[in-house]
Design a protein that fits this description.
- The chain has 139 residues and is an alpha+beta fold.
- The chain has a four-stranded antiparallel β-sheet, covered by helices on one side.
- The longest helix is centred in the N-terminal third of the chain and has 36 residues.
- The chain is globular, with a radius of gyration of 19 Å.
- The two termini are 25 Å apart.
């Protein structure tokens, strides 16, 4: 189990570092392009790009197996104000693949996950409780 935890930590660190690098590069490029266009833009030139990106967090995780595959179950926070609900994720640890992502309707975050002996995952989220069934691959 310590090996799985170390692998997950490494994956999360890589995602955070990679994300910071990508977003800082995009920000620099967008800033340079914006300065070039500022003098010629009018109000009609602007495009609504949607809701701003909010800070996404994973607060808790549990580890298990689905069909012999080592997995981590975790939830990424959403934004209640924009209706972007938290997403429960099933991640293949060994192959570093997202196996499933399920929106938790009406919940903007999740504060705990508990795995039962039969493999079900109870998700405590915003004033709600969800139960993920790995056999049905749904909640």
């Amino acid at each position: 189990m310590a090996h799985l935890r170390a692998a997950l930590i490494n994956i999360l660190v890589l995602l955070l570092v990679f994300g910071q690098l990508v977003f800082s590069f995009v920000d620099i490029k967008v800033s340079a392009e914006s300065k070039e266009k500022q003098s010629t833009q009018t109000e009609n030139d602007f495009i609504d790009l949607g809701t701003p990106i909010q800070t996404a967090q994973t607060i808790d995780a549990v580890y298990g197996q689905e069909n012999g595959t080592n997995v981590v179950y975790t939830t990424v926070t959403g934004s209640a104000s924009s209706g972007d609900w938290a997403k429960f994720n099933v991640i293949d640890i060994d192959n570093e693949k997202l196996l499933g992502s399920y929106p938790l309707d009406g919940a903007s975050n999740s504060w705990t996950h508990v795995i039962t002996p039969d493999g079900r995952v109870f998700i405590g989220a915003s004033k709600k409780m969800f139960v993920y069934d790995p056999v049905k691959r749904s909640y």
